[in-house]
C-alpha cells in the first residue's frame, strides 16, 4: 500500500507544482479555486501517507521490542535450571543480536525500498 501512496503523492505534488508554474506564465491559470482543490489533494494524500507510515512504524517498533525479549524467552528454561553462566548468557545474547540485526535490515531499509518502488 505504501508504494502506491508514495506514487500518488508524486502525482498530486507534480500537478500542484505544474499549475503554479503555469500560473506564473499565464494570468488565466492558477486560479484560487483550482489551487485550493489541488492543495487539498496534496494534503489529503499526505495525511493518508502519514497514517500508513505511523501504522508501519508502530508495527516495526512492536516487532523490535518483542524480538529483544525473544532470546530471554528461549533461554529461560536453561537460566531457571541454572545451567547457563552469566558469560554464556551474554555470548548467546550477542549472537541473537547479530541475527536480529540481520533480520531487521528490511525494516530499517523499508522507507528507501518504498521510495524506490514508487518510481515506476
Automatic annotation (TrEMBL):
Name a Pfam family for this protein: SbmA_BacA
InterPro entries with a match to the protein in the record = SbmA_BacA (IPR009248)
Any Gene Ontology biological process: peptide transport
As one GO molecular function, the record gives: peptide transmembrane transporter activity
Could you name the domain of life of the organism this protein comes from? Bacteria
* GO cellular component terms attached to this protein's record: membrane
- This protein is called Peptide transporter
The organism of origin for this protein: Acinetobacter ursingii
